[in-house]
Amino acid sequence: ESAPQDARLELLLGRIHERLDDVNQAALHLKAAAQLNPADSQALFELAMLHRRSDDRLTAQRELRVLLDRSPDHDEAREALVLSYVNEGKLDAAVEQIEELKRRTKSPHVKVRAQSLALLLRGRDVEEYRKSLRAVTDEQGPDAATWLALAESYNEFEQSLALDAYRNVVAMDPDNEAAALGVIFAEQRLLDYEKAAEHLAALLPRRP
After folding, report:
1. Is the Cβ–Cβ distance between 17 and 26 less than 8 Å?
2. Please, where are the H alpha helices in 74-192?
């Protein structure tokens, strides 16, 4: 019984150090948590996301693959691996993981995001991609990850739409840092510096 309890403590310490931007210590604690309780995928997933945010993409991909070997139905990990492959231009690997995600997921939101991304990679118009994402939120209810995918599809000339989408994510998931930063960057591009400064000031205490 002590190993899972120790693993939870290591996971908590890893999160604390990550919030303090102490990446090395955070990684050590998250790795210890994953080793103490291999049955719990959360620590390994957070370790992979830590490495992704630190631009150590190869390590992040390796950890995600290890996690998926242990927990093949972990949607969030497989979707993260897909996006990592897409960002690196490894489109064949991305499509392979998309097909596996579509086959395994029980979530209609994840399935539509996977199907829509596959079509986008095959040359489908980006507006069709957005239409599919909007449709699943209308039919299945709001979902933070789907709204985030929609927000990130807008280019520099569509910042009002991006801002609305990022705000929807923050409303559903106030701790979503990617969305919070998206709000700030969109406000800057729209020259609303006062709002951007206000939101940045609110974010900084969480990321000293």
Report:
1. yes
2. 75-87, 91-104, 108-121, 126-140, 144-151, 159-172, 177-189
Average pLDDT per block of 10 residues along the chain, 208 residues long:
82 90 93 92 95 92 96 96 92 94 95 92 86 92 93 89 94 90 89 82 65
Coil/strand/helix, residue 155: coil
Give the C-alpha separation, 198 to 195, whole Å.
Answer: 5
Question: Tell me, what's the pLDDT at 208?
Answer: 46
Handedness of CA 119, 122, 127, 128 (dihedral sign): negative
Q: Per the structure block, which two tokens stand in for 27?
A: 């990684």
- The overall pTM is greater than 0.85: no
Q: Two tokens at 140?
A: 């299945």
Q: Are 94 and 121 in contact (CB under 8 A)?
A: yes
* Cβ neighbours, 10 Å, residue 204: 9
Residue 205 has what DSSP assignment? G
18 DSSP assignment: H
Q: Residues 112, 120: contact at Cβ < 8 Å?
A: no
Q: Are 107 and 136 in contact (CB under 8 A)?
A: no
